[in-house]
Amino acid sequence: xxxxxxxxxxxxxxxxxxxxxxxxxxxxxxxxxxxxxxxxxxxxxxxxxxxxxxxxxxxxxxxxxxxxxxxxxxxxxxxxxxxxxxxxxxxxxxxxxxxxxxxxxxxxxxxxxxxxxxxxxxxxxxxxxxxxxxxxxxxxxxxxxxxxxxxxxxxxxxxxxxxxxxxxxxxxxxxxxxxxxxxxxxxxxxxxxxxxxxxxxxxxxxxxxxxxxxxxxxxxxxxxxxxxxxxxxxxxxxxxxxxxxxxxxxxxxxxxxxxxxxxxxxxxxxxxxxxxxxxxxxxxxxxxxxxxxxxxxxxxxxxxxxxxxxxxxxxxxxxxxxxxxxxxxxxxxxxxxxxxxxxxxxxxxxxxxxxxxxxxxxxxxxxxxxxxxxxxxxxxxx
Length: 382
Known about the structure:
It contains 19 helices and no strands. By secondary structure, the chain is mainly α.
């Protein structure tokens, strides 16, 4: 096998596994909540929750010193089933009893195997039909939007993705340092060089531990995953804020192919670094905060407001859990949004909710680092 083909297969596997964790898994857990929403909003919510979910699962197991492939898979499955059952209002106990009764009938001969298999296939067809309807409405019925999306992805590949097969390396001097910290997590040594925002490291560690990718392979390829999702998140934000259908695609494509900033700005996109990964979640923070301030006063007590604020809490906490620089940018954007909605921001009904959300997001981000620091782990030098 050629090095180019191996590299493409490795990147495809990493991209597929990461997308399944951060998009598909949340979509299954929250399918009832996501119904009726625009695809862009579904994407922003799933991507935010998926990363928040995985990062904090790793933090929990690492702080308990029981993190390995078995515990990661088990906790992910159990907690996902619990969340799914709560969202869907399904009793896991009742479901388990129902499955047990069906199995007992098959064993006792009261229910034929053909009938049981026919029932299972009927459910599979029903779910497959629902997936097809979703794909049909979101893709086939919108061919021009998908052409623009393909143009964006091609531009990203031409500018950034070619490095996957042209250059085999980390492309940044500090990547090996982060690789060492991630490898230390595999030995149960969280914050091996001191307390530091480890959200990025948790994601890489999860992909390594659960799916078996070598850490050095992920760090050589993950930069392009970051680039793709950074532009997709920006596209989703613009699609939610712009009235014109195709303007967001044009805007993101122009941003992708244009060279508006210093060369050093774009050079960092070619490396798998926490700062660039953390910057992705500034955009969901902006969107969910705007959505909150757009909520009419009489609807502030509703479930939708809690969902929007919860999403803002997760997105803002991710900027802090991954890299402090992202939090600075997110904070500046939040101040600008508050100024734009100044009258609502000064209203105590809005103010108390947003202040509580901000405090909670900072608390959630700093909690793992605070626990490690209180246990005697010093702060990392930077």
